Amino acid sequence: MSFQRTFAIVLRQFYLIRGSLSRVFPIFAWIAVDMILWGFLTRYLNTIASPGFNFVPALLGAVLLWDFFIRIMQGITMAFLEDVWSRNFLNIFAAPLLLSEYVGGLILSSIATSLVGLGVMIVIATTCFKLSFFVYGLAVLPFLFVLFLFGIALGIFGSALVLRFGPASEWFIWPLPALISPFAGVLYPVSTLPHWMQFVSRFLPPSYVFEGLRAIVSGGTASGMGLAGGGCLAAGYILLAYVFFTKVYKNALRTGLIARYSAENLG
Amino acid sequence: MKEMLSIKGLRKVYGDTVAVEDISFEVRTDEIVGLLGPNGAGKTTTLNMVLGVLEPDAGTIQIEGLDIAKSRSQAIARTNFAAAYTPLPGNLTVSENLRVFGLLYEVKNLSMRIDELLKQFDLEVFRNKKCGVLSSGEQTRVSLAKAMLNDPHLLLLDEPTASLDPAIAREIRTGIRQFAKKGTSGVLWTSHNMYEVEAICDRVLFLSHGKILLEGDPKRLPAEHGKKTLEELFIAVAREPLTLGMG
User: Fold this and answer.
1) Fewest 10 Å CB contacts: which of A61, A123, A191, A212?
2) Does A86 reach chain B within 8 Å, measured CB to CB?
3) Structural domain spans, chain A
C-alpha cells in the first residue's frame, strides 16, 4: 500500500470541491435543511405531547445520526462517480494504483466531507434546537462508529453496482438509504414493525444504534452487546462489499469494461 | 539493448470475436516500435493489455522482466501512456491533474518535475486553466506531459499526434525521439499517419485481424512487399491481408 497514491485520490477530491460551489453546497446544505425541518417538528411535538418526554434527542438526534450515515455513504459514491463523470477510469486504473489504495482514497475523502457535514448538523441542532449530546453520554461514540462503518460498506457496494452496470446505473445507489430506513427503525422502535421486517432489521447495523438511542432517551441504557453486534455486522458488510467490488473490478478487467466504460454494459 | 516489453503468445477473445490472436513481440531500449493496422485490428486491445486494464485470455506480458499478471503495480510503475481518446479530467486544472497523476506514479521532486514538463510542452500559460477548456491539441499536450511525469521506461502512445497541428506534431515527434534515444526507455506507438511512422519508428508491426502480419524497418518494408510507400502497404494490409501471407 502506498499512502502517496491513496493521498492522490483524496487530493483530487479536494481540488474538485475547492474549485466548485456546486460541490461545496451539498456537503452541508441538505442536511442543514433536514436539521431545521426536524428541529421545528420536534419542537412542535414537544408542545402537544405529554410533558416529560423530549422529542429533540429522540427524533432530531436520530435524524442527525441517519444523515451522518448517508453522508458517509454518499461521500464514497460521489468521489467514485467523479471518475465516472469525467471518464477517468482508463487514466486511473492504468496507473500503478492498487484497488485497496483507490478504495482507501474514496473512504478518506468521505471522512473529510462527512465530518464537515456532521459539524454543521451539530451546530444547528445544538444552537437552534438545544440538542445536547450529553444526553447520550459516551454511547454516542459507538453510535457514530457503527453508522460510519455501515456507511462505508454501503458506499463501496453502491460504487461496485455502478462499475458493474455502467454510468446510467448511478440511480440505483441514491435510493439505497431510503430503502433501508423503514427496516432500520430510525424514527420508531423496531417492535412497531411486522415480524418479517423485524427479522430483516436484525441484519441492519443501524437498527442497533437507533434502538440504543431510544433506550437512552427513555431513561435506560443502550445494549453494549447490541452495539458490538451491530459493529461486527457492519465490519462484515465492509468486507463483503470490498470482495464484491474486487469481483466486479476483475470482471471489468476481463470484459474490457474498464477500458471502454462509457460504452456502459458490454454484456 | 535491454528488453523493456516482452509479449509472448498474447490472446484476447470477446465473445465470438478474436481481437488478438497469439501475438509475440518485444520493445527494447532506444527503440520506437510502431503498432500499425486498420481499425479493429487489435492495436488498442494490445495496448490495453499492456496497461493492465484488460486481462488477456492467454499469454504473458513482461515489463522490464516483471510479469504484469503477478506484479502489476511494480510493472505498471515503469510505464506511462497517452492516448488521443483519453484526455485528463476536464474539471481539474493542468497543474492539478499533473500533481494528482504525479502522486499516483510516486514521482520524486514533483513540483520541479511539473515545472519542467509545463515548459517542455509549452503549457506554462495554461498551468491554472481547467483542462476541459483547452483545445484538443492543448489537451493532447497535457496528456503527453502526464505520460512523461515518471520518466517511464516503457512509453505507450496511442495516436498521440492525432489532434495536433503539423508544426506541434513535429515538435512532439522530435521530443519523443530524443526521449527514446536517452538509452533508458522504449516506446510503443500506434498511428494511422504512415509518414509519421516512417519518420519516427525504428521498427513496425502490422496487425490484421488480431495477428502480426508483417514486421520490419518501415523504410524498407514497402519495397520488400512490392509497394512504393508505407501507406500503400497499409492499405494492402487492410484490404488484402491474405495476399501478404496471412492465413
Assistant:
1) A191
2) yes
3) 3-263
User: Which residues span the domain enclosing B92?
Assistant: 88-151
Q: Are residues B55 and B116 in the same domain?
A: no
Interface test with A, best of B103, B131, B153 (most A CBs within 10 A): B103
Number of domains in chain B: 2
pLDDT category of residue A132 using cuts at 50, 70 and 90: confident
pLDDT of residue B40: 87
pLDDT tens digits for range A72-110 = 999 999 999 999 999 899 999 999 999 999 999 999 999
d(CA A123, CA A39): 12
Asked if A124 contacts A38 with a C-beta cutoff of 8 angstroms, the reply is no
The answer to whether residue A256 neighbours chain B at the CB level (below 8 Å) is: yes
Q: Hunting for cell 493496422 — which residue is that? A: B37
A56-59 — which CB contacts under 8 Å span 24+ positions?
A56/A129, A56/A130, A56/A131, A57/A131, A57/A132, A57/A135, A57/A136, A57/A213, A57/A216, A57/A217, A58/A213, A58/A214, A58/A217, A59/A187
Residue in chain A nearest B129 by alpha carbon: A19
Flag if B53 and A258 touch (Cβ within 8 Å): yes
Substitution target from A88, A93, A100, A265 for chain B, most B beta carbons within 10 A = A88
CA distance B214 to chain A (A): 27
pLDDT at A261: 65
Most A CBs within 10 Å, among B100, B113, B128, to test the A interface: B100
pLDDT at A35 over 80: yes
List per-block mean pLDDT (blocks of 10 residues) for chain B, which spans 247 residues: 94 92 95 92 93 96 96 96 90 97 97 96 95 92 95 94 85 88 92 89 93 93 90 85 57
Chain A residues touching B91 at Cβ < 8 A? 16, 19-20, 82, 86
Verify that B147 and B220 share a domain, yes or no.
no
Q: Which residue, B102, B135, B151, sits at the end of a domain?
A: B151
Calpha distance A145→A231 (Å, rounded): 8
Distance from CA of B61 to the nearest CA of A (A): 15
Mean pLDDT computed over A179-190: 95
Beta bridge partners of B28: B3
- Residues listed for chain A: 267
In a domain, B83, yes or no: no
Nearest-by-Cβ selection for B53 from A4, A86, A90? A90
- Which residue among B132, B151, B170 closes a domain? B151
Instruction: Determine the residue of chain A that is closest to B12 in CA distance.
Output: A254
Tell me the C-alpha distance between A226 and B174, whole Å.
68
Chain B hits for A80, CB-CB cut-off 8 Å, are none
Regarding whether B164 and B225 lie in a shared domain, the answer is: yes
